[in-house]
Amino acid sequence: QVQVAESGGGSVQAGGSLNVSCAASGYTYCNFDMTWYRQAPEKEREFVSEIRLIGTTSYADSVKGRFTISQDNAKNTVYLQMNNLKPEDTAVYSCKAHLSCWGPEHEVSGDYWGQGTQVTVSS
Question: Per DSSP, which regions of the chain are E strands?
Fold first, then answer.
């Protein structure tokens, strides 16, 4: 079964940094586009950053210039380096993998969510 798992969250003071990761597993014949979202208490989930299979990236305006998304295709892992963190960055950060699969795993194609990792930034 396909699994998506985030890690690397924690608590930092404003101006600090964290590097969260998202790892996908449980497949053989699939490629992934991965998107980071976040959800703060009493707020709706919002887009943070996305990386495509070949490495093209996009960012929400609120994090542009502070966050950097990258990938290690050999490890099927995507990273989100978060610098100059602000209290308003406090949220549960979740990763969504969009699978494009072929051959015997064609029916596995679709979206898969991790359970999220907590990021807390204090002022």
Answer: 3-7, 10-13, 18-25, 30-39, 46-51, 57-59, 67-72, 77-82, 91-101, 110-113, 117-122
